[in-house]
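Re: that chain you flagged

S.,

Sorry for the slow reply, it's been a week of failed gels. I finally had a moment to sit down with the sequence you sent. For the record, here it is as I used it:
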Amino acid sequence: MNYVELNISVPSAEIAEILTAELSELPFDSFVTEKGVLKAYIPQDALVDCKEEADQILAQYSVSDCRYVQIEAQNWNALWESNFEPVDVDGRVMIRAPFHTPSPTTEFEIVIMPKMSFGTGHHATTKMMVQMILNIDLKGKRGLDMGSGTGVLAIAACKCGAEAVDAVDIDDFAFENCIENIATNGVAERITPMLGDVRAIAGRKYDFILANINRNILLGDMDAYLKSLNEGGQILFSGFLDNDVEAMVAACTARGLKLNLERHIGGWAALGFLS
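Prediction finished late last night. Pasting the structure tokens below so you have them in one place:
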């Protein structure tokens, strides 16, 4: 599969974060910001159906300095290897690639080869989700990682004591990448990768749910999540901006959930609720 890299010159980190949130509503699945340029990646075939909408988003924020660049699929891993640095989460967890030096000082490591999947720990939403996972009791519990990408959150949950996790993603590459990463981290027997959308969890029950996607999908699929969440269960959400918190809290409290965790990094937010 060939990818297209959309290079956008951004005047500030705030605009970069806003554009990331807006474009993530389209099939753009990875984002990197460096030296004043936001790079957004999308499968070439998917861009055909949404380029006009993407251009409208850029025009809405008065962005004119941008260009689309085709990337050969075989160059994707080299791109990640050149940009992917280890991520330290509160001195407790190191998220790194196989080619990085192991860290002997953290509680545990998560080894991720991201390939074409979201979830290296670099994005604020992934980091906040791991922070919240570290601060809840998952020992012996069964959970769901919805929109699992690389499988990083499912792996973190298992390394924090979860008994079993279903890792669900709609993307073929994410599904294959998750299989590789859970094997690398020695948790393949406890994580079940599943290819599909929220319909894949119908009839299943979980003690906890992790969902790092985007606001619209989270709100649209909220009732399906709650049907699968056991009474007294924990649900963690991220993938949305600070100004989306009010809508997320309102939707959750209207369904009887109680807010018990909250994180903010760089304009992004993460929330935890108890059923």
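What I noticed first: The domain at 84-274 is CATH 3.40.50.150 (Rossmann fold).

Talk soon,
D.
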